[in-house]
Amino acid sequence: MTQSQQNYARWSGRTLYDSNGEKVGQVGRLWTDDEDGHPTWLTARTGMFGTGESFVPVQGVRDREDGNLESRYSKEMIKDAPRVDPDSTPRGEHIDRAEEDRLYRHYQLTGTGQSGTASGGDGHDTSGPTTDEAMTRSEERLRVGTQQRERGRARLRKYVVTETEQVEVPVSREEVRVEREPITDANRERAVDGPAISDEEHEMTLHEERPVVDTEAVPVERVRLAKERVQDTETVSGEVRKEHIETDTDSGLEGRRG
């Protein structure tokens, strides 16, 4: 047994998943080509309680990081494939030509199986519908979108700050000024009213203004919170897979990659 055949033999008992990561079933057995001994089909237990097995092409099956296997076909296509009862078919028995033809038609494949060349003259696209002589090349594209999440919260808070202000206030006061006037006929009578020589006092009250400080609360403005949407751009990246098509010839011509 070659190293490649030993690697395929280890697939038995592993869990098979489809192209979307959905569990299909446990791998039962491998079916090999009579001419080169290379595995071409495997069966996965997909029936109720694992009592039936569906054929899956080995081509396009790869190892997963968790140690299981993944097929490029969907679970629905695998479950709808021609089935075989593991109890009624001895291990290693050939698949008859008619059933293998049905498998190739179901998976839209062309090639040579255990019992000979599969039927069909048109080209078949393994990732799409039946075509003429062309093959469809597909690739993955990034699909991006946005989701809304809470970024933070804002609130208004009012607090009191004491400040000192200086204001210029005009004030007035009374001061004494001595005025002298000579004795005239107009004021003589008041001037000689009283003793000729005596001690005497005359008093007057002086007034002044003083600044008075008081406070009052006056509304000056209204403050509220408002939201506005700001548009920005962020760069995201992701891994995508692309299919490449190459040609193989057996006539000595060089193949050219597309």
TrEMBL record:
The PRC-barrel domain, residue ranges: 8-66
InterPro entries in alphabetical order: Bac_photo_RC_H_C (IPR014747), DUF2382 (IPR019060), PRC-brl_dom (IPR027275), PRC_barrel-like_sf (IPR011033), Stress_Response_Assoc (IPR052967)
Name of one Pfam family that matches: DUF2382
Biased composition (Basic and acidic residues): 79-104, 134-150, 203-232, 239-258
Sequence ranges assigned to domain DUF2382 in this UniProt record: 135-246
Region (Disordered): 79-150, 191-258
NCBIfam families: YsnF/AvaK domain
Protein's UniProt name: Uncharacterized protein (TIGR02271 family)
Natural source organism: Amycolatopsis thermophila
